[in-house]
Design a protein that fits this description.
This is Interferon-related developmental regulator 1. This protein has helices at about 25-40, 55-75, 80-95, 100-120, 120-140, 145-160, 165-185, 190-200, 220-235, 240-250, 265-285, 290-305, 310-330, 350-365, 370-375, 375-380, 390-400, 400-430; strands spanning about 335-340, 345-350. The protein is an all-alpha fold. Among the domains are: about 60-205, Leucine-rich Repeat Variant (Alpha Horseshoe); about 240-335. A two-stranded antiparallel sheet has the order 1-2. Strand 1 and strand 2 (about 345-350) form a beta hairpin. The longest helix is centred in the C-terminal third of the chain and has 28 residues, at about 400-430.
Length: about 425
């Protein structure tokens, strides 16, 4: 019987039987290795899948081991590997509270993010900016976060103002600049400086094309939208005297953006207008806007827009948003929304709260509910108090098992099938004519 070949006996040894110097992580191998690890973080639900009970301490150690590997890979030579590592860290940070782990490595993470933003290309810069947001969300407001912002703030501003950088990178950095400043800033002069940087970007959208009516649509519109939304977020934490100055500066100019060809710009301008009116009426109960008739006419036209050249989905979204904006401007009314997370409920009852919630939801994605339950910073922002502590028995009774979910989904599927079958039968009978 032939002897089995020894593993690595040929291709891993050079002349004379000496071990060959093999590169342990080539660019391609590193990318594959990273992507295989990343699959575990592609879905935040993967952290909380139902199944047999496991040792939480061992699971945490395994998670931290993987995260250490991702942090190391942010320094890899391959851009693809670095980007995959950044995305994996983003998924983990949005799905778990990792304060202690991050605290020990915050400077390393900050250096990696700074290097990726400075030297990376568009996709890598976007991923790094997104990770910077999540890093500050994890750390919350404090001295450590201020140190992170002192390092990354100038880099973000430089990219935002750099006309040679890609629009996507500038857009991501504008959003990151606004969120990080909102979280960590304690120096009022730095707050005003950041707002001025963002103002200089979106105010360019006010400029009208001399040869056309309305706002000229350019490839910079996505950047203007992100800068406007980030600026609006920071306006919500400004002192009232500064709020009054900003309202006087922008309230008469913002309505011009309602004529923009881009749906997202129209919606961003409309929601910003509603927020400005809300803040203006808080500072002055007798606030009066001179061009109210013209503004309400524009808002009503957008709330009932039926232009055939626009997609149905866009028209539906626009009408829904501008109905609320019109009610806010005309009637000082806001449609209260309820957000459920675990056993708790949060009511969004004003435009300031809505703007803040939507901003963090965009960053955290499906991890928003988890952070609302467990993240001290977010709970302070939304005035939810300390996290609600539930024992394991209570959590187990509240949790629906996978088998129960399967039964529920099967029953719902059968009910839908029966209902649709009846509708199809009715449609079949309509074909008879006299």
């Amino acid at each position: 019987m032939p002897k089995p070949k020894k593993r690595g006996s040929n291709h891993q040894r050079g002349a004379g039987g000496q071990p060959r110097n093999v590169q342990p992580f080539s660019d391609e191998d590193a990318s594959i290795e990273t992507m295989s690890h990343c699959s575990g973080f592609s879905d935040p639900a993967s952290f909380t899948e139902d199944g047999p009970e496991v040792d939480e301490e061992a699971t945490q150690e395994d998670l931290e081991y993987k995260l250490k590997g991702f942090i190391d890979l942010t320094l890899d030579k391959s851009a693809k590997t670095r980007q995959a590592a950044l995305e994996s860290l983003k998924s983990a940070f949005s799905s778990k509270i990792l304060y202690e782990f991050i605290m020990e490595r915050r400077m390393t993470l900050t250096d990696s993010i700074e290097r990726c933003i400075k030297k990376g290309k568009s996709d890598e810069q976007c991923a790094a900016a997104g990770l910077a947001c999540l890093l500050c969300v994890q750390m919350g407001s404090g001295i450590e976060s201020e140190e992170i912002f002192k390092t990354l703030g100038p880099v973000l501003k430089k990219i935002v103002c750099d006309g040679t950088a890609s629009i996507q990178a500038r857009q991501a950095c504008a959003t990151c600049l606004g969120i990080c400043c909102f979280i960590v800033i304690d120096d009022i002069t730095e707050l005003y400086s950041t707002m001025e940087c963002l103002e200089n970007i979106f105010m360019k959208a006010y400029q009208r094309d001399r040869d056309a009516n309305g706002v000229s649509s350019t490839h910079n519109t996505v950047l203007h939208v992100s800068a406007l939304l980030a600026w609006t977020l920071l306006l919500t934490i400004c002192p009232m005297n500064e709020v009054k100055k900003k309202i006087e500066m922008h309230l008469h100019k913002l309505p011009s953006l309602l004529s923009c060809d881009d749906l997202n710009m129209r919606i961003a301008a409309g929601e910003t207008l509603a927020l400005l009116f809300e803040l203006a009426r808080e500072t002055d109960a007798d606030f009066f806007y001179e061009d109210m008739d013209l503004l309400t006419e524009k808002l009503r036209a957008l709330a009932t827009d039926g232009n055939k050249h626009r997609a149905k989905v866009d028209k539906r979204k626009q009408r829904s948003v501008f109905r609320d904006v019109l009610r806010a401007v005309e009637e000082r009314d806001f449609p209260t929304e309820m957000v459920k997370f675990g056993p708790e409920r949060m009511y969004i009852d004003c435009w300031v709260k809505k703007q803040t919630y939507e901003t963090f939801k965009e960053i955290l994605g499906s991890g928003m509910q988890y952070h609302l339950q467990s993240n001290d910073f977010l709970r302070n922002v939304f005035e939810l108090g300390p996290p609600v502590m539930l024992d394991a028995a209570t959590l187990k009774t509240m949790k629906i098992s996978r088998f129960e979910r399967h039964l529920y989904n099967s029953a719902a599927f059968k009910a839908r099938t029966k209902a649709r079958s009846k509708c199809r039968d009715k449609r079949a009978d309509v074909g008879e004519f006299f």
